[in-house]
Design goal:
- The strands form 5 sheets. A 6-stranded mixed sheet has the order 6-7-8-3-9-10, sandwiched between helices. Strands 16-20-17-18-19 form a 5-stranded antiparallel sheet, with no helix packed on it.
- By secondary structure, the protein is of the alpha+beta class.
- The radius of gyration is 25 Å and the shape is elongated.
- The protein contains 8 helices and 21 strands.
- The two termini are 36 Å apart.
- It has helices spanning 52-60, 102-107, 114-127, 143-155, 173-190, 201-207, 225-230, 235-240; strands spanning 14-23, 26-36, 41-45, 67-72, 75-76, 87-90, 161-165, 193-198, 210-215, 218-223, 245-248, 250-251, 256-259, 262-267, 275-279, 285-287, 297-307, 310-317, 320-329, 344-348, 355-358.
- The chain has a domain at 245-358: OB fold (Dihydrolipoamide Acetyltransferase, E2P) (Beta Barrel).
- Bound molecules: adenosine-5'-triphosphate (ATP).
- Residues 23, 28, 46, 48-54, 199 line the site of adenosine-5'-triphosphate.
- Adenosine-5'-triphosphate binds at residues 23, 28, 46, 48-54, 199.
Length: 362
Amino acid sequence: MTLAPDSRAKQDWLRVAGISKKFGNFQALQDIHLQLKKGEFVCLLGSSGCGKTTLLRIIAGLEVQDAGQIWMGSRDIGKLPPVQRNYGIVFQSYALFPNLTVADNIAYALRMSRDEKARRVAELLDLVDLNGTEDRYPSEISGGQQQRVALARALATSPSLLLLDEPLSALDAKVRERLRQELRRLQQKLGVTTIMVTHDQEEALSIADRVVVMSNGAIEQVGTPETIYREPATRFVADFVGRANWLPLSRSPEGKACLAGQVLNIDLPAGITRPVLFCRPEDVRLEAKWQFGSSAMMALVEQVDFHGGVRSAALSLCADRDIRIHVDVGPNDACYAALQTGKRITLTLPADKLRVFSDTSL
Ligand code: ATP
């Protein structure tokens, strides 16, 4: 059944509505809803097998959904063949034609005169900073350069949608980071709406306007990188993105969260079973001196490691040595020097940075 888009959805440039997909008995995607604004860069993030590539392939028309529609503006493109969907796509493997030169690879999908083609290829080579490589074959350029050629080829017909399936994951870390920045710059310059699949959370957080975190064929959360990192909606997102302390809680008689006998200044919502506290290592505050009141706790420094600019330490609470808290401290922090193995230290957990989840198994 084809439904007319509602008025709110009209503001969305691309709208994925209720997409489901089974492979045999296996539910690869379950009722996926997603809206993109024109010019947005959205990353599909999740661990292997969560369904992100299947969703991208369905948007591309390379896979057929069992249910749901894909609206581009007011048009349901969900049943159109790939060639009518107006997108460019780049896969993880470079997938260039080995027997064609760089220029011929880029020009492959162009239907225009020879002169116009040459002009367009020169323009695209300039765009991806590959001037001078037009006569080389894929085997004569580096992996990073091959991926830039693949990108130029995907952009050749000026598609309105760019689909990227782990385009950087075959590259080494340094090239990958540089290309990530170039990709973002290029995407912003062209204003092309982009969906990129990645399992690399750092990549997703650094490049996307919004991140879609997926697990088991469903969307866990959609949000800006800041929101995903700072305000994870589910235990899965909190655990999957970034590093975190997970600390066992009990309930105080007033319904507050209680850690190792210390009442914290946050409510424990009703209905939470086996509550655990979520706190990022960089949010734990260390105090040089013991502070009475609030939620200050004594801890013992068990181990300290250097990680470039920060010291990472494992602390154990004096009130319960089994409870370990990881903390990251920068050199400008007053407690940086005091962070030494065997020393006692005071810490506080700032209420506005804490979140409580049920300790359900992930
Ligand atoms: P990865 O990062 O490993 O590529 P993904 O999140 O992109 O993972 P998908 O490739 O979308 O995951 O696959 C989702 C699930 O569907 C996986 O369990 C996969 O084995 C299964 N699957 C994908 N394509 C097919 C197919 N053509 N036939 C059967 N099962 C499939």
